[in-house]
Amino acid sequence: MVDATPSNEIRLREGSSIVQRLVMAGFAAAVSLCFTPGLFTHDTLEVSISVLALLVGAAFVGAVMLAPAVVWIITPDEILIGQQRPFGRLRTRIVARDDIAGLQVQRSKTSKTRFNLAFTLASGERLTSPPISDVTHVRETVARIAAQLGVPNVEAPVNPLDASNPEMHLGEPLEPFSARDVRIAALIVVGLSVVPYAYKLWRGLSPSSIDIMLLPISAIAAFAVHRYANLVTGAFWIIRQGDIRVERLWGDGTPRADHIEGHDVQAITVERRGRSEDEHCIVVIRLRSGQKFRSPRIGSRNEARAVGAEIVRRLGTAPENNQI
Known about the structure:
Elements: E1 3-4, E2 10-14, H1 18-33, H2 44-66, E3 69-74, E4 78-84, E5 91-96, E6 100-107, E7 115-121, E8 126-128, H3 138-149, E9 168-170, H4 179-202, H5 209-228, E10 236-240, E11 243-249, E12 255-261, E13 265-272, E14 281-287, E15 292-294, H6 301-315
Antiparallel strand pairs: 1-2, 2-3, 3-4, 4-5, 6-7, 7-8, 9-10, 10-11, 11-12, 13-14, 14-15
Helix pairs in contact: 1-2, 4-5
């Protein structure tokens, strides 16, 4: 998270809360415990699988509970780095302004809108900060930090979600699947259903009723894949001042576009898709007509809130109707 205070402090944080850690650790432990009955069998394979599952679960629980929470406090004179594990002492380090020789902005390998700051010290050491969670003001944050610490020639990052862009882009531009790929996928669906039937005929066995039922089902599934494959390509949002253009594809690959304007919006909320609030949050726009638009995946809840707040500002919707 990025916080600005009257003393010109900028804070960068990383790490889940204790509650989030306990939820993830409890889920992993519950899944692992489901394999414990295999320990009491006489089957070597089942015992091995159970032991492996318990070891993997224990390792995951340990990694979740022992991961450190990190906070950087950047002031005009120094960087204060604090690191604390759930069951450990707070470790601090101070990096003086005069020790900083360079600053670069690094983009995450998994997300085009997640950025970290990489400081090079005079000693040659390289320090990487927690990510900048206000993904709509990355350029402004980087410029402020560079100015505060007196670091020259810092290259501005290319950020599709920056509020300084006339158009903010969520997701990737859409391209339909090629006809060849769709045909191959449809043939795979048919093949998976036909193989059991063909195997039994080859072995001289009578196909069961389930094997026979799979044949028409596979034909229907193959037709659905051929006809509607492009519906799974998702959406591409273009967020402009006053409206949002939502681009999607019909099943046959032809483009379609919907426009969202401020007066059409009933509410804008941030929701989680999946178990993790650190990676799977989106913005949901509900129109007065009842129609809902779900954005492409953004990232953490803080990142999604930043995007949602910028959408509210650009559309000019009433703040009391939104849950950002």
